[in-house]
Amino acid sequence: MKMRRFTVLALGSLILSGAAWAHADAAHVKVENAWARASVAGQQASGAFMRLTAQEPLKLVGVQTPAAGVAEVHEMKMEGDVMRMRAIESLDLPKDVAVDLKPGGYHLMLQQLKAPLVKDSQVPVTLIFKDAKGAESRLSLQLPVRMVAPGAPAAGTESKGHGAHGAHMH
């Protein structure tokens, strides 16, 4: 299996423009509004969120970070009247369709945190994709650590359910 590797180093462009495009010889993935939720001492898990738009059909098949012992792609969905969260093997990224990884939906789950994710710091995350032929590519990002999503309402005015995710543990 051929592996393609690329890195987005320009965090400034990610924050300032809100978007970054992958290197031309690898899977084309636009990343917008990427961030990780800050944690506190003793907290073992947190989430990371972003909008992904692929320029070719892809699957997000994994995530890696040195900040956590376990990193997985998760989904949250209602089953009856209970919100369930579970790891998924892959997340389809249809061509030119924005897919949101957000609190209360699909997201990256960082578990067994090695240290707290400190507000205003950065956490390295590598996304792993597979194309229709099974070729793997990787996208390395530096996610800004925040208390709430960029552009989210101030604390205490969040919509029900979105503020509690960072405290969820398995």
UniProtKB/TrEMBL annotation:
Key words, A-Z: Signal
SUPFAM superfamilies linked: DR1885-like metal-binding protein
Signal sequence annotation: 1-22
Signal listed as a keyword: yes
InterPro entries, per database record: LpqE-like, Lxx211020-like, PCuAC_sf
Alphabetical list of Pfam families matching this protein: PCuAC (PF04314)
Keyword DNA-binding: no
PANTHER family membership: BLR7088 PROTEIN (PTHR36302), COPPER CHAPERONE PCU(A)C (PTHR36302:SF1)
Record's protein name: Copper chaperone PCu(A)C
